[in-house]
């Protein structure tokens, strides 16, 4: 780990990158600056490993074999300063990941262990790998001979044009309307399916409702009938036991009330001698009164008790009806009442389906017009911006040494052979639309005069593709939202005068972005604001990568090596100085 010292220079993006136990890198710290950071060094010294470590830091898939044999844990940590990138800071704040010491700082750490454990942290807070990757996509754009091949895919061209338009409201308004329209379509389809489903089930639903309504169970009726039947069916036993109870209370020779009465009489004789007996006497008198009233109530209950055959049969029949439904539907009486209400609602829903669909259809028609209006506005802006962007790109293509190249941006309507929910009718044609609008966008190019325009993927030269990518990036200056660009030997396939032109273009791009670039070309390296050399040494049979920030004198020597090889001559030193001074 390393201690952070707050820099005053507010433009810095990635300030430090710390790598430990990553292949041949035992431990290294890269000090980076805003502007153009150049990495040079011999083949196999570990330059690309540094960019791989940066990719790992930002959420790329982990390969545990990269952990250095002597180390138990691999660590990659980066300190990012986003003072001028409020959107990124807002993202961090929204995720509750703000650095408590320095709000504008974001410290990201990735750890791998040989046991296969991967951990990710943003400002020391554990995060998911998906969150790390999401954040990484916001801040860094990595380009290599393989990765910038995505530029050749026409699917990416509409995103590039949208970035140039730089009108988030226009694009977001359309996307929101499209999403709302799509939800309405999905709801309509759901309703139609429900309608068809209910149409098939309607007679069955109607039968169930009638079956329940014919019985018409009342709340708790099954429980109440069950209790009533128990009483009626056991009338004789109940009568016998009540009679016996009354006898014990008041009728028999040794009944309870008589005995309690005698107890009260005896106690009254002596209560005058001890006042403490008064409370006991009151309790016994109270018990006598309660028992006497209970005996009276039991007598009334017995007198009212009689077996009603017709009532019993009626209740049995009613209980049978309810019990049949309970078993059939596996529901209680109360649940049957609820079931009937639900069936009634389904029938009402089915009866009013056409009306509901009509209302929904009107909403769809209104929203579709809204979507089309916004799609047209977005398309018009794209056509206008495509002309502006292509002019700017062509300017930078010439600066990159592609003097005869000409790029144009095709913005065409998307058409469908058939009308559907996602088409607009235009005369006898059907314009197709999706989340991106009604346009197909593709970058077309000629690299030599007299040729026909063709898709970028037809460009054979990797060097040409690299320069087209740089021209596009330079054209988006101030309009793209990604602050850090990383180039891994994108200068492959160029040299000499062209390399100088590409170097100027990268330098121009570094005025608005922090750039980290690996290069083997002295013409590009001479433009650096910060030059790092990556070398390797062998010690005790182990290869170790070393990374060093170069001062001006060391930078001159390094560029001289790039000019003449390992053997530095006065001529190569002179050439290096000329490159640096004439940049």
What does the secondary structure layout of this molecule look like, with pairings?
Layout: E1 14-22, E2 25-31, E3 36-41, H1 47-57, E4 73-81, H2 86-94, E5 105-113, E6 118-122, E7 125-126, H3 129-139, E8 140-144, H4 157-165, H5 168-215, H6 221-233, H7 235-251, H8 256-270, H9 277-304, H10 309-329, H11 333-351, H12 353-399, E9 406-413, E10 415-416, E11 423-426, E12 429-432, E13 439-446, E14 454-455, H13 462-475, E15 484-488, H14 496-509, E16 514-518, H15 522-525, E17 530-539, E18 542-549, H16 552-564, H17 570-581
Parallel strand pairs: 3-16, 3-17, 8-15, 15-16
Antiparallel strand pairs: 1-2, 1-4, 4-5, 5-6, 6-7, 9-13, 10-12, 11-12, 13-14, 17-18
Describe this structure in words.
- This protein has 583 residues and is an alpha+beta fold.
- Among the domains are: 1-145 and 482-550, Rossmann fold; 216-350, no CATH class.
- 52% of the residues lie in helices and 19% in strands.
- It contains 17 helices and 18 strands.
- A hairpin with a 7-residue loop joins strand 13 (439-446) and strand 14.
